[in-house]
Amino acid sequence: MPRAFAEIAFTPRVRAAQARLGSAAGYEKFLSPDVNGGTDLGPAEAAFIEARDGFYQASVSETGWPYVQFRGGPKGFLRVIDARTIGYADYRGNRQYVSLGNLAGDGRISLILMDYPNRRRIKIWGRSRVVEGEAAAEILPALHDPDYVGRPERAILITVEAFDWNCPAHIPQRLTEAELEPYLARLRAQISDLTTENARLSDLLGAAS
Predict the structure, then answer these.
(1) What is the pTM of this model?
(2) Given this model, what pLDDT does residue 36 score?
(3) Which of 23, 91, 92, 149 is the one with CA 20 to 30 A from 103?
(4) Quick one: residue 151, left, alpha or beta (phi over 0 = left, psi -120 to 50 = alpha)?
(5) Sequence spans of domains, the chain
(6) What sequence ranges are listed for the domain Pyridoxamine 5'-phosphate oxidase N-terminal (predicted)?
(7) Domain spanning 39-196 has what CATH number?
């Protein structure tokens, strides 16, 4: 766990809960200056992020209520721009603009990216910047896949403040249709081979009778 994540997540009330439940000593070391800061995304993080076709995004309204939304798009639509910056094309949806309104008042944002087949996930905390109009027109070509049917309305850029690879415990294994296809292809090939062999044996038995 990087220090930057611990410094954000381990608030006084969180530390009090850890102390009460007996885990404070184990997590104390992650607040040490000797621990890696954990603000720069490396090759492993970049590869993981750009392999995803969706993520969960949390923002906070001026009333203090959190709002969690699933953002989806073509694989890799969340792009790593540099070691401290990620961004995505914000596609038109139901036009409620709850996340957009929240981010306009408080740019703090949290993402959870899931890899269900391999039971992996990464949490990212950052500060967002909404880019619209002519400025977005300059940025969107680098973020938007022209072959995707979605209509991009703006760009969302996020400066990474912290990230953490999270424990795989309790992550269910799930596969999308595309992820399941290689397994199904092998099963279809086996079924085809068995059907052919069954027909051959049936012909042999018929000829012998």
Answers:
(1) 0.85
(2) 81
(3) 149
(4) beta
(5) 1-37, 39-196
(6) 44-140
(7) 2.30.110.10
